[in-house]
C-alpha cells in the first residue's frame, strides 16, 4: 500500500506572525529581515510584498527600491516565531503522531492509515489547515502525496492557503510539466547544461535513458534525478528528528572585502547561533565557518573545541580564527559568510535538591548572563542588547 | 591619643579585627581601624557595615583618645617589626605616628568621630554555650553555603535555635550540611524555633575566630542582627533578610541501602579517580556493590580511571554519579574513621555522615553523567 505523506508549509511565516500580531500591518507589504539601508537580506516578506517581485534572500536594498513607501520593515523576532512554531508542531501531533519538523515553518506528517479515521486525503489536509488556524490563526499550504518529494511539490504548487492532493496514480501527470529545477540535485549549474540538451521539464528528463543522465550528471546525481523524475522518493517521516546543526549565514548585497565588516557579521552570526543553541538547551563542540567567495566558490572549515559550548564569544572567536587561518581569502570579495555549530554534547547534569520539592522556586546556575541577555531579547527584540567591543578611536 | 604597647600584645588583637576589612571599600574610612585608648587598654574595631569585629588588649595609656589608621598598612608595620618590640602610637596634628626602636612611621588618619558603628537593634534572645560547640556548627556546614547565588538566602548558614539545641544548616541546592549542637540549658524560643541566617563572610570570620577550648560564648539575637562575644572580642553581624527554605523536606527519609567505608581509603581513591574526571563537572561514577565500592571517571579526551574500595554494604547494587568535590567536602567534615552512606537509587539524594554520629547529616544530590 502506498504511504500517504503530508507536507505542511506555513505561508510567509515570519511576516504572517507579524501581521497577525499587528492588525494595522495587514494588507500592507511587510518585510522581515535586515534594516533597510543596510547590507542584509530579506528573511521573509508578506504576499503583499511579493507582488512587487520581492522574495526571501533578496538584498534588502534591492527590495526597498521596489517596495512602496507604506511598506513595513521589521527585524526578525526569532523567539516569538519559534514559540508559534512549537505550538503548530504540537497541534499537528494531534493529527498524526509522526510529525517531522524540517524547519521553523515546515513539517512532514505520515498520514498513512489516517483515511480510516478522518477520511480521504483532502479531508486530512483540510483538518491540518483547520487545526493550525484554530491554534495560531495562520494559514498554511498543504500537499499530500505518496512520498516526501511529491508532498513537498504539491504544497509548493498552490500558495498561499493551498491544498493539493496528488494520488499515487497521478504522480506522473503532476510531475511531467514541472520545470527541471524542482528536482533535488538540479541546481544553477546543472539546469543550464540540461537545457542545452533540450530538456526543459521533468517529463523530458523522465524520457531520457538512465545512462545518458549518469553521463551528464555523474553516476550518483544522475540516478537520483532519474528516480525523482519518476516520482520515486523517500516516503519515510522521521519524527522529531534531532537537529544536526545550528547555523546562521548571511549573503551580502554587495560583495565584501572589508575585514571589519566580515568580523562584525561573524559576530552577529555567532550571536544568533548561540541564542538558538541556548534556547534549545544545546552545546556543541564543532564550530563551522562557511564562506562563499565571488561568484560561487564555497569553503567550509571546522574547528573542534575542547569542551562543548553555546557561548557567543567562543563561537565568534573560533570562527574568526578559522577565517584568519585561511590563505585563500586574501583580499577576495566575500559574498556569503556564516557560522555553524554541531557535535552536540550531553552535559552531566547536577541534580538539584529543591528541583521537585516545591520548597523554593526553581533556580539553576546556568549561565546567568546569557539567560538575562536572552530574556531581554525575548522581551524587547533581538537588537536591543548586544555584546560590545572596544573600537580604536577613529 | 598616646600609648605604648608590646608587639606581642597588639598583633593578635589586630589579626582578629583586620579580617573584616575588605581590599576595596565603598567608603574610605572602612579601610581603617578605629583605635581607642582608655583605662590601661586599647580597643580596636573594624567594620564593613555588615560585620563589625571589636576586641581589646592591655596597653600603657599616656593620653586616652581615639584615632583611625589604615588597617592593612598598620597591620603590615606591626607584623614586620621585630619580635619583642615595644610600639608607641600617638596622634600628632593630622597624622598618626607609629614608632618602635629606630623605626618611625607617619600614617594618614580619618576622623575617629566618622567611624561607623553598627546598630544592633534590640537583641531579644541571649544564650551562653561552649565556644567549641558554636565553632563546630560553622565548621561542619560552611562548605555547603551557596556562593553569590541569586537565591541570596542560601549565601549563608542558617542557625536554628530549638528548645535544647542549636542547629546549623547550609545548602547550595546541590548538597546540604546540617549539624546540631546540644545546649547546656534549655532556651525559651517562644512558640516555634527561632531562625537566623548568618551571611557567608561572617560565617568565615566566626569559624576563624571562635576559640576551640571550652570557653563560654554569648550568643545574642535580634530581628536583624546577631552578636557573638567571647573574652575581649565581640562580633556583630547583620543577618540575611530572607526566609530559609524548609530544609527538612529535602533531607531524604528511610533510605534502604547502607554502606560503611574507611574514610581515608575512600579519600585516596577519590583523589586518584578525580584526576581523569571532567575538569568542569568533576563527575565520578560510583557503584555500590556487595563488599566493593567501584569508582569510574573519564574526561572529554576519553582517558579513564577506575578504582575500588572495600566496604560493608547491605542493599541492591546501585550506580550513582557524583561530583567528587561534594564527597571530598563531606570526607573533610567527618571526624570518625569510617563513613556511612545511605541511599535509594541513582536519581535520589543520599545521606552521608560519620559512623555512629547522630548530630551531623550531609545530603548530596547525584549528578546525571
TrEMBL record, chain A:
EC nos: 2.7.7.7
Residue positions of the active site: 106
UniProt KW Metal-binding keyword: yes
Catalytic activity of the protein: DNA(n) + a 2'-deoxyribonucleoside 5'-triphosphate = DNA(n+1) + diphosphate
Residue ranges of coiled coil: none
Binding site for Mg(2+): 9, 105
GO cellular component: cytosol
Name of the featured protein: DNA polymerase IV
Naturally occurring in which organism (per UniProt): Thiohalocapsa marina
Originating gene: dinB
TrEMBL record, chain B:
Superkingdom, taxonomy of origin: Bacteria
Major site of localization recorded for this protein: cytoplasm
Domain DNA polymerase III beta sliding clamp central residues, every copy: 129-246
Domain DNA polymerase III beta sliding clamp N-terminal: 1-118
GO cellular component, one term: DNA polymerase III complex
Residue ranges occupied by any DNA polymerase III beta sliding clamp C-terminal domain in the UniProt entry: 249-368
InterPro entries: DNA_clamp_sf, DNA_polIII_beta, DNA_polIII_beta_C, DNA_polIII_beta_cen, DNA_polIII_beta_N
Compartments, as annotated in UniProt: Cytoplasm
UniProt entry tagged with the keyword Hydrolase: no
Keyword Transmembrane: no
One Pfam entry name: DNA_pol3_beta_2
GO terms of biological process kind: DNA strand elongation involved in DNA replication
GO molecular function term, any single one: identical protein binding
Xref: SUPFAM superfamilies: DNA clamp
Gene3D superfamilies: 3.70.10.10, DNA Polymerase III, subunit A, domain 2 (3.10.150.10)
The entry's keywords: Cytoplasm, DNA replication, DNA-binding, DNA-directed DNA polymerase, Nucleotidyltransferase, Transferase
NCBIfam families hit by this protein: dnan (TIGR00663)
UniProt subunit comment: Forms a ring-shaped head-to-tail homodimer around DNA.
Function: Confers DNA tethering and processivity to DNA polymerases and other proteins. Acts as a clamp, forming a ring around DNA (a reaction catalyzed by the clamp-loading complex) which diffuses in an ATP-independent manner freely and bidirectionally along dsDNA. Initially characterized for its ability to contact the catalytic subunit of DNA polymerase III (Pol III), a complex, multichain enzyme responsible for most of the replicative synthesis in bacteria; Pol III exhibits 3'-5' exonuclease proofreading activity.
Family classification: Belongs to the beta sliding clamp family.
Record protein name field: Beta sliding clamp
